[in-house]
Amino acid sequence: MIRPRVIPALLLRGQGLVKTVKFKEPKYLGDPINIVRIFNDKEVDELVLLDITATPEKRGPQFDLLKNIAGEAFIPLAYGGGIRSMDDVKKLLSIGIEKLIMNTSAMETPSLVREVADHAGSQAAVVSMDVKKGFLGKYEVFTHCGQKKTGLDPVKHAVEMEKMGAGEIIINSIDRDGTMQGYDVELVRKVADSVQVPVVACGGAGNLSHVSEVIKQGHASAAAAGSIFVFQGPLRGVLISYPTPKELKEFI
């Protein structure tokens, strides 16, 4: 049996990597190439790289920087942030990005998801959604890095994106982001049970037990996380880490 993937999710802000809490308070982690090299050595399953300022700044991907990062990554690399057209997609694929993550663009131009799937295969067309739970317990999808309400239910959005050709769905809980208090298992399960494609849980991991929980109880196909792979101790000192194969086998 193939073990579910455990994926470091890195946030690109300008030329450096940061980690946020509930999409706010970005803490600088370091140079992306140095951190990617460390994850290379640790043989992580996959890397997710998200440019969190591309859409708010109304710009496209930083192709030169991404080319340098991809040139150092000897592991599968997924990228999201500012992808608006097939020109962007083709450039990213040409420099070594294997998966294209669409968030705001998937909402505003859903046909782009189909175009990516037709061009590069459904496995390359990934839709990410940032979700927040309202006061009445209703989940809502946000765009523009969690800044803009859509009024859309995440389950409905996931189903539509699967129809458009998305081969994978990433569910990122805004409420849990960076808290290290555990994933929103209920949210992940609702989405995972509504689609046939793999669902990646993101937001809230504080330890490997949380990862195991969201996979087993949330029916996630994979778990992405940031804080547990970049921080150490209660003061959140920066230390890049990743579980050993033995640790992963024990929990997952």
Record the SSE blueprint.
Elements: E1 5-13, E2 16-21, E3 24-30, H1 32-41, E4 47-51, H2 63-72, E5 77-80, H3 86-94, E6 99-102, H4 104-108, H5 111-120, E7 125-133, E8 139-143, E9 148-149, H6 154-163, E10 168-173, H7 185-192, E11 199-202, H8 208-216, E12 222-225, H9 227-230, E13 231-232, E14 237-238, H10 245-251
Parallel strand pairs: 1-4, 1-12, 4-5, 5-6, 6-7, 7-10, 10-11, 11-12
Antiparallel strand pairs: 1-2, 2-3, 7-8, 8-9, 13-14
CATH top level label: Alpha Beta
What's the end-to-end separation, in Å?
11 Å
CATH arch. level architecture = Alpha-Beta Barrel
What is the structural class?
alpha/beta
CATH structural fold name: TIM Barrel
For the report, how would you describe the main beta sheet? 8 strands, parallel, barrel
Radius of gyration (CA) equals: 17 Å
Structural domain tally: 1
The CATH homologous superfamily is termed Aldolase class I
Low-confidence spans: none
Give the H and E element order: EEEHEHEHEHHEEEHEHEHEHEEH
Strand order of the largest sheet: 1-4-5-6-7-10-11-12
Please count the beta strands (DSSP E, at least 2 residues each).
14
The fraction of residues in strands falls at 25-35%
Polypeptide structure, described:
- There is one protein chain.
- This protein is of the alpha/beta class and 252 residues long.
- The chain has one domain (5-251): Aldolase class I (TIM Barrel, Alpha-Beta Barrel), CATH 3.20.20.
- The chain is built from ten helices and 14 strands.
- An eight-stranded parallel beta barrel has the order 1-4-5-6-7-10-11-12, surrounded by six helices. Strands 13-14 form a two-stranded antiparallel sheet.
- The longest helix has 10 residues, at 32-41.
- It starts with a strand and ends with a helix.
- The relative contact order is 0.14.
- The mean pLDDT is 96.
